[in-house]
Amino acid sequence: MNSVSPVLTENEVPAEQVIALGHEEYYPIIVARITYADKSIASLVRYRFSEKERWAIAKGADLILSQPHHHAMMPVGLQLAMPDQYPLE
After folding, report:
1. Taken in order 33, 66, 23, 73, is the CA torsion positive or negative?
2. Model pTM?
3. Which of 12, 20, 31, 64 could lock 8 by a disulfide, CB 3.0 to 4.6 Å apart?
4. 87 found inside a domain
């Protein structure tokens, strides 16, 4: 799966930034930093699944989200896994 733009709509593109660009250990992700009316902040990312990933989801694969906690903007990992199996390659 790949991070894609626009995360929301073309109106929010100026709020997007690319995280982890140039870090070989991470895939770059496109993040829209949004501030809501109550001043809370969210980081939104949109992912597009490959045909292989769509097939796995249709067959019942689960989505696994991992998020190491060691930076202000934490990288995330997304994987698909069939029930009771190791994540797909």
Report:
1. positive
2. 0.61
3. 12
4. no
